[in-house]
Each structure stands twice: as structure tokens, then as C-alpha cells.
Design goal:
The strands form 8 sheets. Strands 28-29-31-30-32-33-34-35 form an 8-stranded mixed beta sheet, sandwiched between helices. With 652 residues, it is an alpha+beta fold. Helix 7 crosses helix 8. Helix content is 21%, strand content 34%. The protein is globular and about 70 Å long. A hairpin with a 5-residue loop joins strand 17 and strand 18.
Length: 652
């Protein structure tokens, strides 16, 4: 019922911009229609965040049969950043709005309290932190105590009565340092604060009363970062993610009373990629680990919480699962499943009758059975370093295929995972094998692996990407004469630098929002922000690329424009505040001067990415056409891909 009801609403609001991409291709790059579903504490109602061309609204449905009860009007061009029940008659909704001229939000989200009785929504005066267990009339919020822009923001937390939304006299905690984030326990007490100083070093503090803070970790002293991941149901302990100088991060239990730490899990190759909650979402019971297809691990496998969670994992064996919300008695759960073929599907789990009811796919236009699998691989780089990644083959491929090497951005704080990737599916369904590798410097495999990418832009990182490309050739995956390389931001840099370092390996290169002159990172982009942000960015640059002018020039694609002889496609969002559009403009000019004019497109109202549906269709149409023109006509059409993927799904 919910699927048909919501699908009808989505189809009525679908954009109609013409494009060379067919409907299935456009669906792949479209924004999900259903972004969140949460169940009321009494289990009777579902709140669904639904996006269409007008913005994002909230539908209230009966959980029993998914019939529509009411629609909460959030206004024109609303964006929902948070959706939580406060009792079964109120919803906390984090809202911001899209600027009319731009396709970006105009401000930080505001918090509203919506009542199901239809009364006018009320605005919270501060940023939301959490609800409080068993308390339907109070919430925790946080705000900047000092408003002067030249001073570091000191965060203050307050307990607010929803019937008297005033901040005065209700402070329960004040952060010990500027720009700190706060974490509360389930009873509403602030227990942790953590912050990053202007040199990029992290500090973690703990408190019993919200006023007296103890420094638990100083990265300047320990050399590693420690961050809180959650607090136990009983409030006696917390879960910490602890970096190690050698090896992946561990998960540790921290005892508030004694200060002792106990290692719960540490994998040999992977950081915890995400965490598994108990059915009531009030405890952590395990984590997912890579580096390939994620595997669930539990620190107390015999506990009732872990056994129930393992049952859910087994019920959806080809997916990862997350619990978005639960009824107060734990009998009904909203579970979201995701996989390499599925961007997200919502289910209502009845734990009493052991039934799972399909609700809706977050993007109803994407059928998981018609998508292509991403298979993990492991290989050795030329210096012996173990690298992991994923290959997605086009349907019906029985030998070497034309291939696109997709380089992820970052390079740190980013990685390629097993989950659904719309770009990958788009390329694979147009007949291209897609290779993604987590080169050195990538997140998710420990601090030491990440630090191996330091000062290796355009050097060892580039070698890793080339080594992975050659691995795909030796494995019979890629046609060595038909390989292109593509990425966004750092990935765009690596695409062009890859051509410079490996002139015979790639047949074409494409980049969106790329960095092509490393020296300009010190004068453009994030350094134009406030003092704190600019100092963080400056420290980051000094750490990862250094300040040697000769080396920066030598490792910049713009210096080697005359050496780039293959076709190039460049695109950029003109309003990009992180990577200045001049990076692409100057690279275009340098290539033109060298006699190799690239295809170039500037999206006037886009920032660090592409948000507008029409711009997305335009960009990906150009990208696919660029690959088709330079790798030869695609040998597999999207209709053939559908048939092949159905056969592949049946085989599984």
C-alpha cells in the first residue's frame, strides 16, 4: 500500500527535462524520493520525509496499513535534515531552505516542533542535540554562547520545555573549549565534548556534571584520535573509536566510574565502517568491517541484543541493515537495507509475529534486480602495499571490456565502499567496466595506511591507481586500448595527473571540480573562509602536499598541459567555495594553448558537486557521450544490461 501510494505521488512530481539519457539512466542519477521513515513511540504512525520538485514534506501514515493520515506542509523548497518523534503526537523536524536562484541551502537548519493536531509549528531557538528517554516534554539543544564572530564559539547545552521554548536559566553544560561538539546520554546528561584545534589536532573531554571537564585524550600528546561513538543504555559506559599508530581503529568500552578502557573489537585490516545498534537503538552491539563486502561482528555475540540483531542481518543476507527507529515497546522496527544494487529499501519489522513488511524503496524508479554487482578485489601495489577496491562489470561481458577508472575524492576522509553508487551503475549499464581502488591515503584502513598518502599526491597515490588499472588488464577485465580515467575534486586531479605520469595507459580523462594547480590551494578556496576554518585548511595542506614550490609545480597537471595528448573533459560548479572554478578555467586555457582544447562546461549556480536535476542530467549526458566517443560505441545497451543483470540476479 505504501509503495503504491508514494510511487503515485513521486510520478506526479517527476522532472521532465529532456536529455539524451534514457529514463532508466536518469533514474540512477536522480535524488531519492523517500529519505527518512520513523515510527511513533506507540507504534501506530509512520512519519515519512518525501522529496519532490517542490521540496521535502512529511507524510503521516498509519503503520497498520500505510494509509495517509495527514501531510505536514514544511513550505516551499524545504530540506529536511532531521526527523524524530517526541512522544506520539509531536515531530521534531530540522529544516532549511533552498535559495531560489541556487540549488543549495541558504542557511543552517532550524528546528521546528510540529503537532499532529494541526496547530502552528513552533521554532526551537537552538540546535537540537537529542531527545530524553521517557520525557515527552523536554529536549536537549545546543547553541553558541558567545555571539561575537571574532571569538571561538563556546557551545552551551540546554534542556528546553517544549511548552516554554526559552533558553534562559536552563543551561546544563558548557563546552570546555571552542568549536566543540557535545554528546549526551539517554537520560539527557552531557557526557562528552570533542573539538579540533586550528592545527587539526583533536581533543576529547569527559564530564559527570556538565561543568567540570577531564581531558581524556589530547592528540598532540598521544599521537592518535579518540572519539565517542555512543553511550550505553544504562549510562554507565561509552563506546569509543580509538586510532592506533599501527593498524586499524579499535572499538573500546569506557567505564565512566573508573575511567578504564576495554577493547571490544579490532580488525586486522579494516576500521569499523559503521555500527550496529540494539533493537531499541539505545546500545551498540557490534560494527561492520571491510575492506570488501561489509561483515557484521559483535562484541558479545551471545547477548540477547546481538542475537536479535544477527537475526536481522541473516534475514537480509545480501544487504547491510540499519534500524532507523523503533516503537517504545520494541515490537515494531523500521529497518533500512542497502547494497551494491540497492540504494535503500525500508521495511516494517514486526518482532512479535516475526514478519517483515516491505514499505518502499527510497528511489522507486530503481529496481535492485536490474542493477549490476560490485565485486571486491585485493591486489599488491608495486611496493608491496595491499590495496583493496571494487570492480563492476557490464552485463554480458565475457572478456576484456572498455573500462572507466573512477577515482574517489578526498583523498583522506573518503573511500570507496561496497554500497550503491549511482555513477558506477550509470557507466556499467552503458557498457563499461568500472574500477575503483582505495589507494594509500584513503580512510577506513587505519591511521598508518592513511598517512602513507601524505606528501604522495601525484606520486605513490598515482602509482596505486595505475597499478590497479594494470591489474584489471592482467585479469582480463579491461581492454588495454580502451580505458579512461575520471573523478571529482581530488579524483579529477588524479585523472589528469594519471595521464601525465602514464601517457600510454589511458585513452581519455574527465574531471569535475578538479584541482589542477596545487600551489593555488594556498590562495584560493577554503582559505577565504573564517580564521578558524582557514587555519585548519592551511595545516591540512602543509601536512598532505607541503610547501616546496618546485614539487608543487611538478605534481600539478597544469604544468604538464603540453604533455597531455588525449581528449579531456572538464566541468566545474562556478560557485564552488572549496575548489575555485579558476582551477578548471586555467587548466582549460593551458590545454588550449598546448593545442589540445578540452570539452568544458561551467555550471553557473552549482557548488562543490551537482545538485540541480537538470544540471545532473546535462553533466552525465556529456560524460557518457564523452566516453562513448573515445572508447568506441558501448557494446551493451541499457536494455541489454537489464536483461543481463536479471540473469545475474537469478544466478545469485
Amino acid at each position: 500500500m505504501l509503495g503504491s501510494l508514494l510511487l503515485a505521488a513521486a510520478l506526479g512530481a517527476a522532472p521532465s527535462a529532456p536529455s539524451a539519457l534514457d529514463a532508466k539512466s536518469q533514474a540512477l542519477i536522480s535524488r531519492p524520493t523517500y529519505e527518512r521513515i520513523v515510527i511513533s513511540p506507540d507504534g501506530k504512525l509512520l512519519a515519512v520525509a518525501q522529496h519532490d520538485q517542490k521540496g521535502t514534506s512529511v507524510l503521516i501514515l498509519k503503520s497498520s496499513d500505510q494509509t495517509l493520515v495527514q501531510t505536514i506542509d514544511t513550505g516551499i523548497k524545504a530540506e529536511i535534515s532531521d526527523l524524530q518523534w517526541l512522544g506520539s503526537n509531536h515531530l521534531i523536524v530540522g529544516l532549511n531552505r533552498i535559495l531560489s536562484a541556487y540549488v543549495v541551502v541558504s542557511h543552517e537548519p532550524s528546528l521546528y516542533l510540529f503537532s499532529l493536531d494541526g496547530s502552528r509549528p513552533r521554532t526551537f531557538p537552538s540546535y537540537f542535540v537529542s531527545t530524553i528517554d521517557g520525557d515527552e516534554t523536554h529536549v536537549l539543544v545546543a547553541y553558541c554562547k558567545n555571539r561575537a564572530p571574532e571569538l571561538p564559539c563556546i557551545t552551551e547545552a540546554a534542556r528546553l520545555d517544549i511548552n516554554d521554548l526559552k533558553e534562559a536559566s536552563k543551561s546544563i553544560a558548557e563546552a570546555p573549549v571552542g568549536y566543540a561538539k557535545l554528546m549526551s546520554d539517554h537520560a539527557g546528561a552531557i557526557r562528552f565534548a570533542w573539538a579540533t584545534d586550528e592545527n587539526g589536532k583533536h581533543r576529547l573531554y569527559v564530564t559527570d556534571n556538565g561543568k567540570d571537564w577531564t581531558l581524556l585524550n589530547d592528540e598532540d600528546v598521544s599521537g592518535v584520535d579518540i572519539r565517542p561513538q555512543g553511550i550505553s543504555r544504562d549510562g554507565k559506559s561509552a563506546f569509543l573509536v580509538v586510532q592506533h599508530k599501527d593498524g586499524p581503529d579499535s572499538v573500546e568500552r569506557y567505564d565512566f566510574a573508573t575511567g578504564t578502557r576495554t577493547v571490544l573489537l579490532q580488525d586486522a585490516t579494516s576500521d569499523p565502517l559503521n555500527f550496529l545498534e540494539s533493537l531499541d537503538t539505545h546500545d551498540l552491539v557490534g560494527a561492520m568491517y571491510g575492506p570488501g563486502r561489509p561483515q557484521a561482528r559483535f562484541w558479545n555475540p551471545s547477548s540477547q541484543d546481538a542475537l536479535l540483531r544477527m537475526a536481522i542481518v541473516k534475514a537480509f543476507p545480501d544487504s547491510t541493515t540499519s534500524i532507523s527507529s523503533t516503537s517504545a515497546d520494541g515490537s515494531l522496527l523500521i529497518v533500512k537495507t542497502e547494497s551494491d544494487r540497492d540504494p535503500g529499501t525500508f521495511y516494517l519489522l514486526d518482532m512479535v509475529h516475526h514478519k517483515a513488511q516491505f514499505l518502499v524503496r527510497n528511489n522507486p524508479s530503481i529496481d535492485p534486480k536490474q542493477q549490476l554487482a560490485s565485486e571486491p578485489f585485493t591486489m599488491k601495489a608495486r611496493d608491496g602495499l595491499i590495496l583493496n577496491g571494487f570492480v563492476t562489470k557490464p552485463a554480458g561481458s565475457n572478456g576484456p571490456s572498455p573500462m572507466v577508472v573512477v577515482v574517489h575524492g578526498g583523498p583522506i576522509y573518503d573511500r570507496d565502499d561496497w554500497g550503491f553508487d549511482s555513477e558506477v551503475q550509470l557507466m556499467a549499464q552503458h557498457g563499461y567496466a568500472v574500477l575503483r581502488v582505495n589507494y594509500r591515503g584513503t580512510d577506513g584502513e587505519g591511521l598508518a595506511f592513511r598517512e602513507k598518502g601524505t606528501m604522495q599526491w601525484g606520486a605513490a597515490i598515482q602509482d596505486d591507481i595505475a597499478d590497479a588499472t594494470r591489474w584489471a588488464i592482467t585479469q582480463g577485465i579491461a581492454d588495454p586500448k580502451r580505458i579512461c580515467i575520471y573523478g571529482g575534486s581530488f579524483g579529477a586531479y588524479a585523472a589528469l595527473m594519471g595521464v601525465v605520469r602514464e601517457p600510454g595507459l589511458y585513452r581519455c580523462a574527465a574531471g569535475f571540480g578538479g584541482v589542477y594547480d596545487l600551489s593555488k590551494l594556498y590562495t584560493w578556496g577554503d582559505l577565504r573562509r573564517n580564521y578558524y576554518s582557514s587555519q585548519l585548511w592551511l595545516h591540512y595542506l602543509q601536512h598532505v602536499i607541503g610547501q616546496d614550490d618546485k614539487q608543487l609545480a611538478d605534481r600539478s597537471p597544469i604544468t604538464h598541459a603540453a604533455e597531455i595528448k588525449i581528449p579531456v573533459f572538464l566541468a566545474h560548479g562556478h560557485m564552488d567555495g572549496r575548489v575555485d572554478v579558476r582551477q578548471s578555467e586555467y587548466m582549460r586555457d593551458a590545454l588550449e594553448k598546448a593545442g589540445n582544447s578540452p570539452q568544458y562546461v561551467d555550471y553557473p549556480l552549482e557548488v562543490n558537486g551537482i545538485a540541480d536535476p537538470a544540471d545532473r542530467i546535462d553533466f552525465y549526458t556529456r560524460l557518457i557521450n564523452f566516453f562513448d566517443a573515445n572508447l568506441g560505441p558501448s557494446t551493451v545497451s541499457t536494455s541489454q544490461a537489464t536483461v543481463g543483470s536479471n540473469q545475474q540476479a537469478a544466478a545469485h
